[in-house]
Amino acid sequence: MGTTQQKLNVRGIEIGVHRGGSGEPLLYLHSASAESTAWNPAFEALAVEYDVIAPIHPGFPGSGGLERIHDIGDLVLHYVDLLDRLGLRRAHVVGSSLGGWIAAELASLYPERVGSAVLAAAAGLWLDEAPMAEVFGVPPGQLAERLFHDQRHPMAQMLHAAGESSWDTPPPDDVLLAFHQSTEATARVAWNPYFHDPSLEGRLDRVRAPTLLLWGAEDRVLPLAHAERYRERIAGAVLRTIPACGHLPVIEKPEQFAGEVATFLRRHPLASSGSAAA
Amino acid sequence: MKFFFFHLMPWPHLPHDYEGSAWITCPNANYDPQKGHGLYNRYLDELVYAEELGFDGVVVNEHHANAYGNMPSPNLIASILARQTSRVRIAVVGNALPLYDPPTRVAEEFAMIDVISGGRLIAGMVVGGGPEYYANSINPTYAREKFYEAHDLIVQAWTRPGPFTFSGKHYRMRYVNPWPRPLQQPHPPIWIPGAGSLETMEFCARRHYAYMGIPYFHKRVFQRNFDFMREACEKEGYTPDPEQLGWLTPVYVAETDEQAWKEYEPHLFYFAHKLLAGIETAPPGYTSAKSILRIAQSRGDFMINVQTRREVEDGGYAIVGSVETVREKMSEAIESFGVGNVLALLQLGTLPADLTRKNMELYAREVLPYLRRRFGGATADAA
Q1: Strand, helix or coil at B165?
Q2: What is the ipTM, given to two decimal places?
Q3: Quick one: average pLDDT of A19-23?
């Protein structure tokens, strides 16, 4: 699949974008793990049918502009600006965790821009009875246990290795800095309130896009109760779970993730409710 | 040359088998208010006693939700000391500025202490340790920005005629007009504690503030930081007075080296292994990339990793021994670091009241006069 990696200036913020495939536009919004810094197998699978656009959020490795971001609303506006910049009036919007939160905000604030929405393990809500687990300041090995069902997954293995490394053999500087940059950019919008926007739940009834809630059945970071709450608040939303999978299906089970997303999007082509072009 | 007595007011009663962090998540069921009553009063007595023993000043600081130091409000302690002492400098090092909103609260409380104490306050300002950003749910990605802006607001509050309007990025106040104003003019001396962040040292150099090196590192880390601070001052076009550099160190003096170690060792390791556990927590965005790498390089040189007396002695993590040993090691460090403020931590961890008093007395009567003769500094009217 031909993919391009480009820099894009979005209202003065220089961001990195991976793009590949052809078809209706699919905007993918990444999690705190910054999976869009590389072309991911899930993107590859989706690119067979869609024009997959995977930008890196401002402030994450490969994009600038953190000084312009102060809360989740700034990220939402940034993606409205990005759609404008690409000349897209509407797009399918797929987001994981932090990216799922942005997608939910976008779909509720700018319903006319979102053709269909996939909220994968989406943050954004707060449930006293099922709080999201701590992800900041957690030692890498423990983080792997929270994020992944299968501890043999290469990324889980990498985290375990980092956790066991001694003072004498710290991770390389570039890995360390990339990690710190991603967590800083995440903390900027998600430290407090913790990964949620207290006003989001009350306006989810504004979402008009057909919505898929896609969750790892073994998500230990964002309990399934969050998916249930989204389903209650978004008319017609569908919930699907991926068995034997943790918090990040896009990374842990990329084929199943892409399969579920494509199956859902096929049922809701943009063409059926207006043109994608601006 | 000035000599200070530093107190952390630690919690000495963590269960023997407790192995978790002493910070943020250490269950506060471990805090027993009855024991706390006795401890606060004992620790206050120790601070007051420091004046009687002839120290130039006493030092307290701010920490939240932890067993390491039970002064979430050091200003409360300082205000008691303002009344219970009459001569010593009272250094609060410091208030963690980003935790105060609006930060004019710091300007007000510091001014109160300064006025009540007759102008004896040293106003410490600090970004605050990493754990504070968890314990207070303050966004760490703005830690530095908020610190600098709050600092500007506080100094303006002390020096500009009020009322005036302050319009910053993080703080916007239509009426800044604190009553009281500080007694020391234009404002109390400002000290900034730091753990090696380059930005902090450059800030001190630019403003001619005193930099206080946070302890528990290998002496080579101190050396590097003090050297950097001096270079930063030179870049600003001046050579710093040694009193612009402060060295905080645990000290224990006894009759002989062996006795000192015998008495001190379990208390030191309670401190190093139980109370320091979790202090190094660095929330995201709290320091710049270059500081992250620099601090990462120093972490192997942090006291929590130290297991033996030999390592403590070789690394200079604490100065322990007979009068002669302590005189010699402190002289060596003072000379090499080029510091003019020495902040001795003479109680630490589980060190009990009797040994703390003995340590304070030996240090004040046998070590201080020697260091004052050698490095200069007024002989205070010791009792």
Answers
A1: strand
A2: 0.90
A3: 97
